[in-house]
Batch of 2 targets.
Target 1
Amino acid sequence: MKETIHNEEELFDMLDTYIREPEEFWTDFYRDRDKQIPFFKNIPDELLVSIHKDGIITKGKALELGCGPGRNAIYLAENGWEVDAVDISMTSLQWGEERALEKGVSVNFIHDNIFKMHVEEGAYDLVFDSGCFHHIAPHRRLSYTRLVDRALKKGGHLALTAFMKGGSFGGADMSDWDVYRTGSLRGGMGYDKKQLMEIFSRFEAVDIRLMEDLDESQGMFALSGLIKAFFRKE
Ligand SMILES: C[S@@+](CC[C@H](N)C(=O)[O-])C[C@H]1O[C@@H](n2cnc3c(N)ncnc32)[C@H](O)[C@@H]1O
């Protein structure tokens, strides 16, 4: 019967309707490409560039969660990676396709909800997320870490950029319970190092630190107010 909850997934689906920004929100978000949104610039995260350039990760297969218009997926593809990049917003993926075409690279853009898509077990050397994780509601967090764990090979890495708690661009300083009391993520939850270590405790924390501002003339994206984290699957 409709609206009867039979299992965990149906419970989460119901909670999503109260908390998660709906697909329409993210579809509208990318309609105006001239908006002054820092991550609309087609430059990769400094975190990604540094781990790639330092040889900490070597090219292989990558999965980007919440890829938006694809600036990081495209950087990886330009550097020889095979990339699956998923986002719930079709408008962002269309933009990403255009960018990839302009650069002459191939990215496998996938239109899906990260919690609904099929992920091949142990298929990826790298899972990358810049700005999606902080939009994930608490009831989905465990599914998120399981998804990353399932996707990664042994020895694979997760690299993550998220709002820090109380950051200048967002990063609500609220408890998980507050999310459900107020019915809102207040534009995205903020995290600190201790929380990220707890949430991703199934992985080895290689490096977690606050980002520092970087002039975009350097061709990379980094802003204070964000936290970057790098984990390894043992
Ligand atoms: C702040 S934007 C960051 C976009 C991109 N990573 C970047 O940095 O340019 C967050 C993205 O996550 C996507 N997103 C949020 N929840 C999602 C979900 N459950 N499944 C897939 N994508 C999701 C949104 O559509 C949006 O494009």
Note: The chain has eight helices and seven strands.
Target 2
Amino acid sequence: MLTIKSALDSERLARAEHDLREIGFHIIDNVITVAEADEAREAIWALVEEDIANGRNHSYGDGKIRRVWAIVGKSAIFRRLIQHPTVVAVWKRMLGEDVIASTFTANIVGPGAPAGGWHIDYPYWAMQTPFPSGSLTGQTVWMLDDFTAENGATACIAGSHKTLRRPELGEAEGLEMSVAVAPKGSILFTNGAIWHQCLPNLTDTPRVGLLGMYNRSVIYPQEDMPRQLNDDDLVGESDVLKQLLGRNIPFRDPDEGHNWHRTDTGFRQS
Ligand SMILES: O=C(O)CCC(=O)C(=O)O
Ligand SMILES: [Fe+2]
């Protein structure tokens, strides 16, 4: 079980919201314990080995940065983390009470990896500029290792989300960056429109992070979240998990006089 070490009080929540709107990012230290971070890290490592055994190579950055996709259904620890109360509180505040998850993956920056490359996150990269000024999406970087300036920590350009556009090639290189240095178990929250990247890993140890993206419910998720847990697995799970997986979105059917909801394989009547 996850131990919730401290509830996010309203003052801290207001600070997180302010920073995400004005600066574009906010760090909360030690959201989970080192033991919990280690449990999640081990679960990711098992999935990496499974991917390798199955010939799946979701890597970039000279093959040294590896993604593990669609993790929420693959271990109980990820089902707990995706709906962690601190995370849900922040994204409900930024993205609405009916917030949904867009994607939940791991990003592993291996030894000798180059920088990931400056970018903005989905759905912004799929959109025309200028972006709308309200937040559509937010990124949750779970640090499953200490993040340091040497091991591939995430870097952001403060205030860049306010440009409402993507960085031109090379544009971000000359700008001052903020590096998310924090202990294992901490979270970096970012506004999805901020210019950011993972830095090069100059050490001989992989840096493991989880990336939980959350959207306003009107934005189609990046991964097919409703399909990642089947109906049987969801029995006994929380309403917030069902909401995050997009199982509660009502698709109106005015002719039939009821709504449809997503299941793992299709739709059901509500
Ligand atoms: O792992 C990180 O530090 C950030 C990766 C990232 O920005 C992404 O994959 O969109
Ligand atoms: Fe990103």
Note: The pocket of fe (ii) ion (ligand 2) is lined by residues 119, 121, 196 (CB under 6 Å).
